[in-house]
Design goal:
about 220 residues; alpha/beta; six-stranded mixed sheet; two-stranded antiparallel sheet; 9 helices; 8 strands
């Protein structure tokens, strides 16, 4: 068991971070939300509906999109095929994401539409992973290690995208180590240690407590 009495809330339209050192339960939390790792007790609510113990595909259909750690795009499909493969029912959404709208956020992908996923750079793969998640028309978007291993310029583009999504009212949960950008964009922060939430607060509160950064995050 990796999580113990873990509890946090994300309100509609918020950007929330899940922080902690490696091995503290961040990715396990994401896997539990998505139904990949079953929970043994407690409950997970999304829009006041219990989603724990639902299969992953039903959780995704309920409106939760994920950009997983390691991106996990389809390597033998082209960019356009990756996007089409995850597109949700357009008729079920008043303003659905389309290939055109995701390419407007990441115009570089326009020049890569016929490239296979395994031929893309790390940054291009992350852009594709985010675009693919948006094609599911999520109400909640989860990014696990949003900018890990990316070049600085690519990281800037990813953060700019996240800001655009925030401005459009998409609720976002982010796991990342880039404190500077996280505190600039996010509304709330939760720190996990050994499967427990041991601190939570706003960006202003977070930055005012340097001991939190040093002790709980090793920064």
């Amino acid at each position: 068991q990796a999580l113990f009495d873990l509890s946090f809330t994300i309100n509609h339209g918020e950007v929330v971070t899940l922080l902690g050192k490696n091995g503290m339960g961040k990715t396990t939390t994401v896997h539990s939300i998505m139904g990949i790792t079953p929970i043994s007790s407690g409950e997970i609510l999304f829009e006041n509906q219990k989603i724990d113990h639902l299969p992953s595909y039903r959780i995704s259909r309920s409106g939760i999109g994920i950009v997983p750690e390691g991106r996990q795009i389809f390597p033998n499909l082209s960019v356009i095929e990756n996007l089409v493969a995850t597109s949700a029912n357009r008729n079920a959404h008043p303003s659905p994401w389309t290939i055109e709208s995701v390419l407007a956020i990441f115009p570089l992908l326009k020049t890569r539409l016929n490239n296979m996923g395994n031929l893309l750079s790390g940054g291009e793969q992350q852009m594709l992973a985010i675009s693919r998640a948006l094609m599911t028309n999520p109400k909640l978007l989860i990014l696990d290690e949003a900018t890990e291993g990316l070049a600085p310029l690519v990281r800037d583009e990813i953060w700019a995208c996240i800001e655009k999504l925030k401005n459009e009212g998409i609720t976002i949960l982010i796991i990342d180590k880039n404190i500077k950008d996280l505190t600039r964009i996010a509304d709330k922060h939760f720190i996990i240690e050994k499967g427990h939430v041991t601190w939570h607060g706003t960006s202003k509160e977070f930055l005012s407590q340097t001991s939190v950064l040093e002790e709980k995050l090793g920064i």
